[in-house]
Design goal:
With 272 residues, the chain is α+β, with helices and mostly antiparallel strands. A hairpin with a 2-residue loop joins strand 5 and strand 6. The longest helix has 22 residues.
């Protein structure tokens, strides 16, 4: 474990876009816990907004208990399992609300999240929101969309270029809240100094391709606030057909759990 302290540089924007009347995305983070989350809700009326907000709130609450100082000191935590269980718990909460409240029937949400621990990050996702890593000038997608089109790409029926233009690209095969149980993809990877992680909803990735995302981040240097705003602006310039949520996380020091001086920071859910 590297002993030097790190301060995660986190910048996030959730924008309603140019077409939708409301914002059904939610973004949230807690720098002290090393926790970053993004959810893209779906459902009639305001149900999508309810689902996405419930996802990030439930996951954070579940992990706050696990990441309490006295629990961490005991060194008994399996962070990989803790992340999976937190997302599964969020799925149960959303599904129960959808069953109990008529106005929430059928609601669901995607989720992507990262928990930075020691010299690694535990990434989890359900749905077609994405996580990317930008390292030494190269952008790498760290998640595979849970969508019908992605399954067709994986099977060789479509190229990535054809998938980007497909009318079915927003048909997802997994989401939180749709069923009592959910399969969560969880992956733990090492992090390095100057790594940048991007989380985004499909409001960005449907309109701005990977090469363009890479160029924006690269051109911004370490100015993550500028890069975040530029990505949202670019999606809006392309029509802003959906809500656009973007979070950029950068590290300027070797990563460690020793973050005592770093204040806790949360975003607003569903900012307009």
């Amino acid at each position: 474990m590297i002993g030097s302290e790190v301060k995660l540089n986190i910048n996030g924007i959730s924008d309603v876009g140019r077409v939708r009347e409301g914002n059904e995305d939610s973004i949230a983070w807690d720098a002290r816990l090393g926790l970053i989350m993004l959810a893209d809700g779906m459902g009639g009326h305001n149900a999508g907004e309810v689902a996405s907000a419930l996802a990030v709130e439930t996951i954070k609450t579940a992990l706050q208990d696990v990441l309490a100082p006295e629990i961490q000191a005991a060194d008994i935590i399996d962070y990989h399992d803790a992340v999976r269980e937190a997302v599964v718990f969020a799925n149960q909460e959303i599904h129960e609300q959808a069953q109990m409240k008529t106005e929430c029937a059928g609601m669901g949400t995607t989720v992507v999240m990262g928990l930075f621990r020691h010299d690694s990050v535990i990434l989890a996702h359900v749905g077609d929101s994405r996580i990317y890593r930008f390292r030494e000038g190269e952008l790498t997608r760290m998640t595979s969309d849970h969508s019908l089109v992605q399954e067709m790409v994986d099977s060789g029926y479509l190229s990535q270029e054809e998938a980007q233009q497909s009318a079915s690209k927003n048909l997802i095969t997994r989401a939180l809240g749709i069923a009592p149980d959910v399969e969560v993809d969880v992956n733990q990877i090492p992090v390095q100094r100057d790594d940048i992680f991007l989380m985004c909803s499909d409001g960005l990735s449907d309109l701005v391709n990977d090469q363009e995302i890479s160029q924006v981040i690269g051109d911004a240097g370490m100015d993550m606030q500028m890069a975040t705003q530029e990505l949202v602006n670019l999606a809006n310039e392309r029509g802003g057909t959906d809500n656009i949520s973007v979070i950029l996380v950068s590290m300027t020091e070797a990563f460690s759990d020793e973050r005592g001086a770093e204040p806790s920071t949360d975003t607003l859910n569903n900012p307009k």
